[in-house]
Amino acid sequence: MDQHTFQFTYEMYPSIDALAEADANLLRLAIQNTKNAYAPYSHFQVGAMALMANGKMVSGTNQENASYPIGICAERVLLSAASSLYPEVAIESIAISYHNAKGKSDRPITPCGICRQSLVEYEARFKHPIRLILAGEEGRVMVIPKADRLLPFGFSAEDMK
Ligand code: THU
Questions:
Q1: Ligand 1, atom 3: nearest CA belongs to which residue?
Q2: 75 an active-site residue?
Q3: Ligand 1, pocket-test mutation among 34, 62, 100, most atoms within 8 A of CB
Q4: Which position among 11, 21, 64, 75 bears the catalytic label?
Q5: What is the value of pTM for the model shown?
């Protein structure tokens, strides 16, 4: 029997002000974008903003439904929009924030499992890492250098060869 360890390195910043200007701008836009979420059931409004490799920005917000499972997370709304608008262009970075009408928004949230799988597919398709900039409306900011770090041992097209 061999024992193995999985680990990855990420950055933690004390606040948005400690980020490089481009990252701080993207995060500010993601925070603003939480207002565009349609989340009348959870009252948890998620805003995402991507910087594409061509310099364009693409946004996403969570879109809920009275039939709860139909709801879509902000991250996958963003990926669908990016893929439709710029099907040939890689994503450089995505900033993700949230407004929690029932509580605080002072720490990063990380994408759910389904969104992690979708993010990893996008990275594989363009052979390009997607940086994730994660934060609440205030407080510390987590920067993950590549989305697949959040999905160790994920299933991919490689497994079907
Ligand atoms: N949600 C997202 O949009 N992204 C996440 O990373 C976590 C959760 C949404 C789904 C649902 O509309 C609400 O937040 C509460 O789960």
A1: 73
A2: yes
A3: 62
A4: 75
A5: 0.97
Q: What is the DSSP string of 71-129?
A: -B-HHHHHHHHHHHH-TT--EEEEEEEEEETTS---S-----HHHHHHHHHHHHHHT--
| 45 within 8 A of 34, measured Cβ to Cβ | yes
**How many angstroms is it from 88 CA to the middle of ligand 1?**
27
Domains defined along the chain, listed by start: 11-148 (3.40.140.10)
| Buried/exposed 13-23: b ≥16 CB within 10 Å, e otherwise | beebeebeeeb
Pocket lined around ligand 1, Cβ cut-off 6 Å: 39, 42, 44, 46, 62, 64, 71, 73-75, 109, 111-112, 115
81-133 per-position pLDDT tens digit: 999 999 999 999 999 999 999 999 999 999 999 999 999 999 999 999 999 99
Q: What is the rounded CA–CA span in Å between residue 95 and residue 51?
A: 9
Contact indicator for 13, 141 with CB cutoff of 8 Å: yes
